[in-house]
Amino acid sequence: MSNARADILSHIRKILTDTPAAEPIPRGYRPHSDFDRSAIQKEFVDNVRDYRAEVCAEVLAPHLPTAIAKICRDHTVRRLAVPGDLPLGWLPEEIEILRDSPPLTSDELDHCDGVLTGCRLAIAQTGTLVLDGGARQGRRALSLVPDLHICVVGADQIVGLVPEALAQLEQYARNPITFVSGPSATSDIELSRVEGVHGPRTLIVLVVEGALDSARTE
Question: What is the pTM of this model?
Answer without folding.
Answer: 0.84
